[in-house]
Design goal:
mainly alpha, Serine Threonine Protein Phosphatase 5, Tetratricopeptide repeat, 2 domains, 17 helices, elongated, disordered N terminus, Tetratricopeptide repeat protein, TPR_rpt, repeat, TPR repeat
């Protein structure tokens, strides 16, 4: 009975850790290339061109307020400068003014529908407002114009995943990885989606690639170990937990999950050692509730061990 209780407890921890690495994050803002803008001819009005160039310079310096003011003056002189509206949208997006950013990106797109960056950044603003269908459509339009932007595929995958469209999300993540094989967040989200889809072998392979590309991302190493546990591959799981601990000795979840797995494998002394380390880390973190919980579990294991003797 005790073994069953601990196994259930392990599964709870596995699930909690599994959901941790979802890299929804903040999608990257696609900033126009300054050199290209300087060389481009966007207006025949010399005064508007001067304001536009000033806006580009201030934007490059990181002075967003001055850049926005200059771009406003540019479009007051010539309302047809699509890239000026795009820049203003970027400024607003970086300031968290998503609704206003949507309006500016929409103006830019209306004037120049070929601006892939404007469609892409419009997708980010729409995503931040929870308008997932519209965001996906914006990313798709961006990709139709420029199919070489891995961030567009990645962000579309994030939105599709939130809509529980696993097949679409997996395809989008794979497209992002094909363009940038070192894109860790896409690989990580691909692994998570594959695991949820039940494609465990490919999920394990994806987690393994993540752990090679980013050794500091211990949550991926733990997720790999958790999946190996679920697939009844305990020796590989133990090795994966130990690797997570080697990389981040102060991660209590790795010690805890390792301890529970060792208990399941009948390695009681090693299990107790791992659980005590987890408890000590929780105590050092001031997480007294977790430390108390672990004390109770350790005592139960010790009592079971003594009974078996």
């Amino acid at each position: 009975m005790l073994k069953q209780i601990f196994y259930s407890h392990l599964l709870v921890i596995v699930t909690a850790v599994f959901f941790t690495p979802i890299a929804v994050g903040k999608p990257a803002i696609s900033l126009p290339g300054t050199k290209q803008l300087i060389q481009g001819v966007y207006t025949q009005d010399l005064e508007a061109a001067g304001y536009f160039q000033e806006g580009v310079n201030r934007y490059t310096e990181g002075n967003l307020a001055a850049a926005y003011s200059a771009f406003q003056k540019a479009v007051e002189r010539d309302p047809s400068i699509a890239m000026a509206y795009h820049y203003m949208g970027n400024v607003l997006l970086q300031n968290g003014r998503n609704a206003d950013a949507i309006a500016e990106f929409s103006k830019a797109i209306q004037l120049d529908p070929s601006l892939a960056e404007a469609h892409y950044n419009l997708g980010i603003a729409l995503y931040r407002q929870g308008r997932l269908d519209d965001a996906i459509a914006a990313y798709q339009r961006s990709i139709a114009i420029n199919s070489r932007n891995p961030n567009a595929y990645y962000n579309m995958g994030v939105a599709l995943y939130e809509q529980k469209q696993l097949d679409g999300a997996i395809d989008a993540y794979r497209q992002a990885i094909a363009l940038n094989p070192r894109k860790v967040n896409a690989l990580l989200n691909l692994a998570i989606a594959l695991e949820q889809q039940g494609n465990f072998d490919e999920a394990i392979e994806a987690y393994q690639r993540v752990t090679v590309l980013d050794p500091k991302l211990v949550t991926a190493q733990i997720s790999l170990a958790n999946l190996l546990v679920q697939q009844d591959r305990p020796e590989e799981a133990i090795a994966a937990y130990n690797e997570a601990i080697r990389r981040q000795p102060k991660d209590p979840v790795a010690h805890y999950n390792l301890g529970m797995l060792l208990y399941e494998e009948g390695k009681l002394e090693n299990a107790l050692s791992s659980l005590r380390r987890a408890r000590k880390i929780y105590e050092d973190q001031g997480n007294n509730s977790k430390a108390t919980e672990l004390t109770e579990l350790i005592n139960q294991i010790k009592q079971s061990w003594e009974t078996k003797k």
